[in-house]
Fold this protein.
Amino acid sequence: MKAHLTRRYIFSASHRLHSDELTEAQNLAVYGKCNSPYGHGHNYALAVTVSGQVDAKTGMICNLAELDETVRRQVLDRFDHVNLNLCSEFQDAVPTTENLSAVIFQILQQNFSAAHLEKVRLEETAMNSFEYSGS
Amino acid sequence: MVYLTRKCEFSASHYYHNPEFTEEENRRVFGKCANLNGHGHNYTLEVTVKGEVDPTTGFVVDLKNLKDILNREVVDALDHRHLNKEVPEFANQVPTTENLTIAIWKRLESHLRPARLHRVRVYELPDLFVDFYGET
């Protein structure tokens, strides 16, 4: 039997949405308040969905402790309480939540092999959320 | 095709233990959940059914019937129970949220006609849930 498991994590980070390819006026028009020069922050809620066959002996798709440890080490330690614009992943990309979702998906895909990574969902605020499933 | 989701809650206790494992293996695989004195959760169940909207009633499914089915097949059987000791599905399998979700699907599947079961989602905690779509 194939099931999907979703685990939710919280991290907080700051960012400024600004593209070097746009003029100051264009940046302001596109990003609005998010272009404010000193940045701002969010409490991000990350939901990671994995899938796989339920193991007959353990009753589990994968060991949750292993997923938690991978997310903590690879995602939370990297992005919690940092300025996303200074992270290596955003030297050539604007740290929108769209891009952050894709970055987190790619990081987890490379570092977690105990189950199939289905989807990453990132809530930037209670009103905004983004999903990335790898394509 | 319209999808309708109904939510309900139940509280139950369980522990994770496979008699084929050594005690050391049980502790390593299941961690704190292997404590044989058990522990409990407030589970939230979301059942999503799908079907065509009946032109006479405007319903995909009669909500009162669905509520009665959920109460009879799931809540009455699981609420304030010890899953390992009182629920037959877990006499021989570990009552993980994965297995619980599949067991609830099997309990409900044949009772929902003409609507069809689309998804069973069980939250063990607000930050942990399992979805089952009936896939083998």
About this structure: The longest strand of chain A covers residues 2-15. The longest helix of chain A spans residues 64-79. Chain A has three helices and five strands. The interface with chain B takes residues 1-9, 49, 54, 56-61, 63-65 of chain A (CB under 8 Å).
